[in-house]
Amino acid sequence: MGFEVIGEKVDFNFMCCKDKGEGAEYPYHNVKDFGAVGDGESSDAEAIQAALDQAKLSANGAVVIIPDGTYLISEHLSIYSNTALRVNPNARIIRDHEGYLIMNGDRDKNYYGYEGEENIEISGGVWDQNAAEYGQAIAFSIGHGKYISIRDLTIKNVPGSHAIEINSSRNVTVSNCKFLGFKDPGGREFSEAIQIDLAREEGVFPPFGAYDYTPCKKITITKCYFGKSATEGPWGRAIGSHSATIGRWHEDIIITDNMMEDISLQAIRSYSWKRVVVANNSFINCGGAVGIYPPLLSKPQDTKDDQGNQTNQSQPCEQYVISNNSIWGGLSYSPGISISGQDANGTIMDVTVTGNIISHAAGNSGGIYMNNAEKVNVTGNNISAINSYGISGSNGQLFTVESNILRDIKSEGIVMKDAVEQVTIAGNQLKNIDHSGINVTDKVSMVVVSNNNILNANRKHVLDAQHIRITNNVARVSLTNNVCYQDPDEEATEGLRITRTVTKLVRTGNNFADLPLLDTSNSLVGVDLEG
Hints:
Blueprint lengths: L3 E2 L2 E2 L18 E3 L8 E5 L1 H12 L5 E5 L2 E5 L3 E2 L4 E5 L3 E5 L6 E2 L16 E4 L2 E3 L11 E4 L2 E6 L2 E6 L4 E4 L2 E6 L2 E6 L8 E6 L19 E6 L2 E3 L9 E4 L9 E7 L2 E3 L4 E6 L1 E7 L2 E3 L3 E6 L23 E7 L2 E3 L8 E4 L7 E7 L2 E3 L8 E12 L2 E5 L4 E12 L2 E5 L4 E4 L3 E6 L2 E5 L4 E4 L3 E6 L2 E3 L12 E4 L3 E6 L2 E3 L10 E3 L4 E6 L8 E3 L4 E2 L6
Parallel strand pairs: 3-5, 4-6, 5-8, 6-9, 7-10, 8-11, 9-12, 10-13, 11-14, 12-15, 13-16, 14-17, 15-18, 16-19, 17-20, 18-21, 19-22, 20-23, 21-24, 22-25, 23-26, 24-27, 25-28, 26-29, 27-30, 28-31, 29-32, 30-33, 31-34, 32-34, 33-35, 34-36, 35-37, 36-38, 36-39, 37-40, 38-41, 39-42, 40-43, 41-44, ...
Antiparallel strand pairs: 1-2
């Protein structure tokens, strides 16, 4: 039997196993038969490892069972190919040493590519990394493997590192897990609960080699919760990466139906990934929800190639769908959704941001941000009660901002600036915008602004803010069929301002009734309703 993992079949599937004695397909090993006590007083690491070693000897695979109890682990556990480690829901595994809880391999061995320990399931139980007693260490270390499932378990109280590191592996699924509590020993606020990384060097993945720059592929993280524990605080990040190598990408990453709460930085940080889906997640009071980045030029260790040569370049990253996420509160660290490319070849390309709700921000970051990007489609999002801009784009090409709803925005509603080429801003509805409703400025070219509906702009009465503002060397603009209005109880503001450095602009069919206009350009005016 097999099951689908992102389009590929697993040759061996532990989830089909029955209770022992009733159609069992594989041998079962209970750790208590190997001497485990589970009393929470003496170490059971040796006994559990003995059961895992016995499972390793089964040519067709085996199941290791940890029954209810409290098990102290005084040294890390190693799990091998074709093994299912099933922990009863009420069992607690507690770290009682300075290292890891479990890894898929041995410290003294090198594995290459995806040819390490594979076809592994770890499920059930509460795995406590015991931050109150011990220092920084990964809880679960997965490297050079494939067809690995981690499900239905809790990892808690992790100091300074990751609950799960997925490194140099493919076809890995993490599902229905809880990640509770992170302790920052200082300078490790960026640590992810689940890190996706590549085998670059020992400092990136200490458990074992080989360091052959193998990236991750086909990773699914679904139906998990990330938050505080009873004793430790929230995570710096829920899911992400913080190292890269030029010429290598993590590919086919799917993150769906998770809940992330009180994350201090960005909940999801895509770093040198491509072909990514982030959908149907809930972000509650997070510093930022989703960040998309190529290798950063400010990190020279990440701009080397796999031969160790310094390229001084970033690299393009492509194909992202960010859809139907709920982002509530937070935004003290970054925008709700940030698409942030780099100079020197680090463009983010082919992005769709659709159907997201971003609201009730406590911090001062914006809603959706895009910079150094190409072919970005921002459609059908609902953005409200934001203490900065609603949607901002800069330094890119082929941006579409269409059919979004923006309300109660404390800065500009939609702003395009700094050398964006080919922009469409169409069919958006904006209400109660404290600065300009739509602002296009600073060498933006080939712009369509059409069919937008703006009610109440410049509510803060700042200098030079209008319902629609087009300034500073913007060229080739079509401004058509927009409707702008100010409620009678709102202080009057300009409906439109176009400055003299704007060239090749045509405007027609707009409704600026009862609003003052200022157009000092040489635009060609058709029939607008003014005055």
